[in-house]
Write a structure and sequence with these properties.
- The structure holds two protein chains of two kinds.
- Chain A has five helices and two strands; from the N terminus they run αααββαα.
- By secondary structure, chain A is mainly α.
- Chain A has two domains: 30 residues; 72 residues, no CATH class.
- In chain A, a hairpin with a 2-residue loop joins strand 1 and strand 2.
- Chain A is elongated.
- Chain B is an all-alpha fold.
- Chain B has two domains: 158 residues, no CATH class; 46 residues.
- In chain B, helix 1 packs antiparallel against helix 7, helix 3 runs antiparallel to helix 9 and helix 7 packs antiparallel against helix 8.
- At the A-B interface, helix 1, helix 2, helix 3, helix 4 and helix 5 of A face helix 1, helix 2, helix 3, helix 4 and helix 5 of B.
Chain lengths: 103, 227
């Protein structure tokens, strides 16, 4: 699918959700279960991306010591845990990756 | 100064501290979207067409991974579902506005515009002009998001490919997830999603991603209900 079409449909969907209950006020309430479930969307979606990014290489699971992205990712996880800072986390992970690639 | 204009400026002022955090985030988005393989134009326009930070990062990652269009769209929708809560929460305060205003304010309804605006509505109730506060908060965020995206793209063009900067996208996700892991349901949701994503990796069309996300959301929600 064309990337512009993807962006337009994605944007329209996002707008639709923002507009939905402002438009439908009083005719529809957000169910309690959905309110709860929404808290778990970011950690779930992002973890579903992170794990394979760190552990898969060329379509197969790579738990070996050669997997530099896994080590760099673990260092970034530690940096995120202790600093809670986006820029420092990215820097820690990128520097780790560049150094590990040299070794 | 008219009351509407005063409200607009108050909204911009209330947004200011949030803009400080958004600016580097927009720059990172611009650079990484470019490094994920989007064109300069597509990287820039995603910031106004989709205009929702974390979903733009996710979309860039999935475009980089050559995921099919419908998977990218479903993922954007899932990541942005929370905006329905903001929509529900603001709806009573906006009910008397014209359709045109509802459409405009909905477009600007981001996390960062919602936060100060709901506080303002709770403190002041509905006045004839305080939807201008939401517009001020939303528009200033939109403006900064476009500028910071452009600067990020500009910087991105100067960074050589050999820096493996595509890896900064998963690193950004790590920076978003890890600080949110404050309780057991959150940790369980993240671990479940991650493990299911590994197990279901070979499913066609990147469906493993959606399956993993749904599994994580379900486990988190069930654990919270049992507390």
């Amino acid at each position: 699918m064309n990337i512009w079409l993807i962006m337009f449909i994605g944007g329209l969907t996002t707008f639709g959700m923002r507009f939905s209950l402002i438009f439908l006020f009083g005719r529809f309430e957000v169910p309690e279960t959905m309110r709860k479930a929404l808290h778990y969307v970011p950690p779930a979606v992002l973890s579903a991306i992170i794990f394979p990014e760190l552990l898969y290489r060329a379509n197969s699971l790579d738990l070996s010591f050669d997997n530099v992205r896994l080590f760099a990712g673990i260092i970034a996880i530690l940096a995120a845990w202790f600093t809670k800072n986006t820029l420092l986390t990215i820097l820690a992970g990128m520097i780790a990756l560049l150094i590990l690639q040299l070794i | 100064m008219s009351e509407a204009r005063r409200n607009f400026i108050e909204g911009v002022r209330a947004e200011f501290p949030l803009l400080v955090g958004v600016f580097p985030f927009g720059m990172i988005y611009g650079t990484l979207a470019l490094k994920a393989g989007l064109s300069t134009l597509a990287s820039q326009f995603m910031s106004s067409i989709v205009f929702a930070g974390s979903s733009q990062f996710v979309a860039a990652q999935l475009i980089h991974d050559e995921a099919p269009g419908f998977v990218i769209i479903v993922t954007i929708a899932v990541v942005n579902l929370r905006h329905m809560l903001y929509s529900a929460s603001l709806a009573p305060y906006l009910k008397n506005l014209s359709l045109k205003w509802k459409v405009i304010l909905s477009y600007f309804l981001t996390d960062e515009a919602y936060a100060p605006s709901i506080l303002n509505y709770e403190a002041e109730g509905v006045t004839p002009t305080n939807h201008w506060f939401l517009l001020g908060a939303g528009f200033s965020l939109w403006f900064i998001w476009q500028i910071s995206t452009a600067i990020g793209i500009f910087l991105g063009t100067a960074i050589p490919e050999s820096w493996s900067l595509d890896f900064a996208l998963p690193l950004t996700f790590i920076a978003m997830v890890v600080p949110a892991l404050k309780n057991r349901p959150m940790i369980a949701a993240a671990l479940t999603a991650g493990i299911v994503a590994l197990l279901a990796y070979s499913l066609p069309f990147k469906l493993g991603l959606i399956l993993a996300a749904l599994a994580g959301i379900a486990v988190g929600t069930i654990m919270e209900s049992r507390k």
